[in-house]
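Hi Q.,

Before the meeting this afternoon, I wanted you to have the manganese (II) ion prediction in hand. No need to reply - just skim if you have a minute. The sequence and ligand are here:
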Amino acid sequence: MAKDETSVEEQENIARQQVLDIIANSPRCRQDEESVMMIRKAFELANDAHRGMKRKSGELYIFHPVAVARVAAEEIGLGAKSVTAALLHDVVEDTDITLGDLESLFGTKVASIVDGLTKLEGVFDQSASLQAENFRKLLVSMIEDVRVILIKLADRLHNMRTLSSMPEHKRYRIAAETLYIYAPIAHRLGLFAIKSELEDLSLKYEHPQVFAQLEEKLKINQGNYEAVINSVLGPIKERLDAQGYEYSIKARPKSIYSIWHKMQTKNVPFEEIYDILAMRIVFKPKEGVSEKAQCWNIYSIITDLYQPKPDRLRDWVSTPKANGYEALHTTVMSPSGRWVEVQIRTERMDEIAERGFAAHWKYKDGKESEIDNWINSIRQMLETAESDSMEFLDSVKLNLFSQEMMIFTPKGEVKVMPAGSTALDFAFEIHSKLGYHCIGAKVNYKLEPLSHELKSGDQVEIITSDKQTPKYEWMNFVTTLKAKTCIKEIFREERHSFIVKGEQILTDELQKRKLSINARILKKLMKTYHVATREELYFQIGRGNIKLDNIEKALTQKATSKWVKMWRLTFGVNDDDNDDEDEKEAIGMPKGKNIVLSDEAERQFTIASCCNPIPGDDVVAFVDEDDTLVLHSRRCPECIKLMSSRGDRIISAQWESHKVLSYLVVIGLSGIDRTGLVSEVTKVISMEQKVNMRSVHFESHDGVFTGSIYLYIHDAADLQTLIGKLLKIKGVDKVVRKERTDNNQ
Ligand code: MN
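Predicted structure with the ligand bound:
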């Protein structure tokens, strides 16, 4: 016993020393004696309060807040108050310390930041998502003080770094939520290093095999990459030295997540990602010449040496990104025939790029920055927030999209808009009144309708008429949060009355059949009429867009496919409902066991129609309202959304064994056409004993063919074998599995 106590004491001393190191390493934390005392006091309080708690990994709990404080200070560059709040971020939620205590000991600012980081108690009705409500609370606090979200990001980063000690179903949920919400927020705030690490860690836990494979491929190619970089580097250094620049150059492959993301979105194999290598030149600007001119001078030096790819020049020096990012990017051809991306930045730009704009952002000097604009749009969204938590999450997500374009006003002023914005979005962006009365736009002097999709560089003049009134249908072609919020605001009351009316119509219709509204019926109707939420269903019924004339058919349809039951799956037991990624653990708690469900199991399970996973795919199960387990692919966007809002209903699932039964998948092929190619392809497929072909479709023009083949296949491993064999056929260049298969095919 005595031995244990000394070891706890020793560990606490290690944690205490870490706090002293944070103070020593961070100029903002040791600027005055008062700050240093406050941080040390916070540590002692947190240490006492958390004493006796451990994390799932077995280490003392106090190491977590200390690690979060370290990220806040050293990786985000926050000051003493934030570090204090980071050390205390879990005490109100998990210990007897109250906000009042914190206020009297550390002042109102620290207390209100901790309040923003404290989760709500679970007292919501069944349909609400606690996860989404907590997220909403976090955003409300962020509007008051952006440090709340910065510390939350530090918290999430440390939880992701230590995720391996978590049970499986929580790993998937936390990883998905991180990818869905927190990495985009980090990006939006310009915290590039943190965003990148969050993405890589998410991928690592959601698709461990994919991650390991890519890691391996990068390792194998490392020598090759180094040779390419070195061949480019020497001449660049020579010229920069000759012109007397002080600089440093870092070269490395892209992050594993960004490689994977590209493979997914472009549907290409690893080998075809041409811009894997990136090189960064960070220089100290010479005095007396503008930073911009010097960036372009270095660009000129590089493109004198190597040929640039014309469509890959990015100038974020003249117009910084909305998150504050500034740099000049070009992609050049190396002597070895590989493209290398070169990023050119000054030391100041590099600081912003790595640590983000937010930490340097003066939020009280009255100057409107892009971050202010962003926070304002979040504020507006919260004021008119959706009652449906999924839709709310969607709205936030929408606002975090990183693809941006520049649109010019008639007077030449620049507005940064998300890619895909329409003329009407632009009208609302300038002013809500302009949006409400908009009848069209002149895009580059040419008249276009409201729904016209804008391109970067367009000059847009909005045309209005006093007679114009807002239309609900506009929702179909606006994409920005601001426009959506404005339109919804106008139709809020009207929408509400349609919802009430729709619910009544449905109630009456069901009563005729001696039925009443329940989750099972709603689910069937939502599926039949293709609406995502029950509110939307009522609304569409109320407006008369959904006529209930085929309600009979909708009600009698079977939800579960029979063949699914032929498979055996292992589901992880969701051992507690505590929706908390920090995982404090009382010693002796029972560990989660896996349960096996097969034909005889009471609970139904079904395969999600959005992603159609097959045995061998990475999957999780979602427990829906009538207790059916819905099996989703972990790559499925719908599933990622569910994990981010209803994580409490996610359980892990593993393919266990399966009887001989087949799944329908679609593969796409392309390559150079030649006589006999199609018959060779079909021959290879028919030789595979475990594969059955259902239909083949080939098209060829100008010597290039594309084809789709529908196959019945047992599992992902058999599919992989087949793809390997098809790729060996002369002329076949690419074989990919298509994610979505149509159920009716
Ligand atoms: Mn925490």
